[in-house]
Amino acid sequence: MALDFLKRIFNPNNVTIALDDIQALILRSRPVPYYGTVAVFEINDATQAKLILKELLPIITSAKDWHKNEGASVTLTFTYKGLEKIGLPKDSLDSFPEAFREGMAKRAPFLNDVGVNDPKYWEKDFKNATIHIAAAVIANSEEHWKTKLQEFRAKFSNNKGLKLLKSHDFGATEEVKNVFGFRDGISNPEIEGSGIDTPPGFDRPLKTGEFVLGYPGEGDITKPYPQPDILGKNGSFLIFRKYQSQVADFNKYIQENSRNPQEGELLAAKMVGRWRSGAPLVLSPDKDDKELGDDPHKNNAFSFKNDEFGKKCPFSSHIRRMNPRDSKTFVLEDERLHRIIRRSVTFGDIVPPDVTKDDGKERGQYFMGISANAMGTLEFLQKQWANDGNSQNLGTEKDPMIGVQDSEGLFTMPADPLVKRYRGLQTFNIVKGGEYCFIPSLSALRWISEL
Amino acid sequence: MSVLDNIKLTAELVKANFSEGIDDGYDHSTTSAGKKGLRSGRVSELTAIANLKPGGAENLKKIMEIANGNLKGATKVGTLHDLRIVLLDNDTKILFCTAYDGDWDAYIDDFATKIPQLMDIIFGNVEGWPGIKDPSVKQFILDHQITATGWYVGVPHLTVNDVRRNDKIITGLNKVIDDANKIEK
Ligand code: HEM
Prior knowledge:
The complex is a heterodimer.
Chain A lengths: L1 H6 L1 E7 L8 H4 L6 E10 L2 H11 L15 E7 L1 H7 L3 H5 L3 H5 L5 H4 L12 H4 L5 E7 L2 H13 L7 E11 L21 E4 L31 H4 L3 E10 L1 H10 L4 H12 L17 H5 L23 H5 L18 E2 L2 E3 L16 E8 L2 H13 L24 E3 L6 E3 L6 E11 L2 H8 L2
Antiparallel strand pairs in A: 1-6, 2-4, 2-5, 3-4, 7-10, 7-13, 8-10, 9-10, 11-12
Chain B lengths: L2 H18 L9 E3 L5 E3 L2 E9 L4 H11 L13 E9 L4 E9 L6 H7 L1 H8 L13 H8 L15 H22 L4
The complex binds protoporphyrin IX containing FE.
């Protein structure tokens, strides 16, 4: 769709990073509409796997021409176990961050993956950490998707080096709604040096090092990255988390806590921070505005600076927690250090707001987040911003969308004349598994294939 | 300690607790605050001892003098219940103690971009301080941190933000009460 494309203006004079070495997923917007497949593999045999990798190299897509976002892209990433299995030298393995080496399930205490989100309830491939490689094929048309997927499959169909553990097709229409019926995938940070030209009123791009390894980040600090240089530089890390969405429970909660459907829609929007159309509450506080939600020039051009008391968009709403955009802070923190590029995809069908009975079907999203410091960022977001309320001056209140709710299940909604306090929220999005993956640069992939 | 001594001490403690302990309904138990340190409810302790650079103690005293002994700048951090700097062993060592909300290590990067000079002015007096922007700073702090043997917090379930918010609410409430009680003449 042309709209998203308009929003992200490319200026070749602004390119200072090696776009042709960086994997496309980091910079390409998800196309609209999109079609795709995520697949996870186990490596049976390192030598064979390296052969497949060599075969695959030509179809792994770089971030060059990210702004055109044409056709299909192929992404290939490794878990720590995968890097180990394919035979990275020990000192290379040791140069990866501790949280990455341990894997997501082991980091549960640091991620507040407790209660219903406890790894003991995760799907077995995640629980047992058997995933070595995660790959994605994402395209802007069904045709491109199918062709590329076939090409991808052909590369390893006759080879026993890789075992396909699971693959999942997904897609979304023009509107890109998640299973709750809310537009998703609107707000993403831009990266300095990618060639992006941000129009006035939009967020300043973030320092390259926040998202690509080997460059200075915010505060001009270049963090250590995996070694040797060819392995780490131009790479990044991916957070992969599978969520099951309890939409009927959410709808039921909204119904039981509002007097009429309009009030219910407002409450639901207050929890997210945007209306179903994507229109931000700050720009349209009283009712949904589809035109605004559809307009990529406007639907993300706002900050919370003038919503000092959260009367338009509650401090506790999902988007204000995840990106406070100039909110008054109650704790010394730098909001530009905790940003994440989201490339999440939805699976399963949308449940309309009047359905309050769970049909037991699988639906939700594969949350995919990218950051050069993905592990630290996810741990920060999960512990400080999603599962606590101290940063928002809200005690122990949690994110209404992704928090693991306790017996209180509180949601605070500033309002006139009196603030409203809702109780008994449930955990509406349950983690079913997750893993951290390394997104090697194209030269790193070649280096690995030649080990 | 012999088994007998052990039993005796336990018995004495139980007696002392029963006669002197008051149940305020709060959970005063402690857990680990991460790699080091103890936590009670929302409040953790950080205790560290380190050698000072030559002249470091003088610098620190000068800083306190310039600040007139008022460290209100620390309010900015938002999570500090208290902090204490003590010079030990003829001004050759520093003892740094603080009671703070939540986690400190999650915020180290934020300190490095938000208050780098302040951190380095104070801790730059410590022998071997790598600088707040150095990737090894977390480990440096951990290496000098000593987990407390005992940790008690009076009101463990409230953060500094909670206390401030509650204080505002009470002030507002008292004003309403005072206004309502005013005798019009
Ligand atoms: C199934 C779980 C989730 C659902 C249903 C969900 C839903 C949403 C929706 C509807 C938006 C607004 C649209 C947009 O700005 O793109 C949003 C934004 C966002 N979400 Fe989530 N989300 C989920 C999980 C997560 C997780 C796990 C994280 C990070 C740990 C996260 C971080 C963010 C961020 C950073 C934004 C953008 C905030 C901004 O820049 O304004 N979300 N999410």
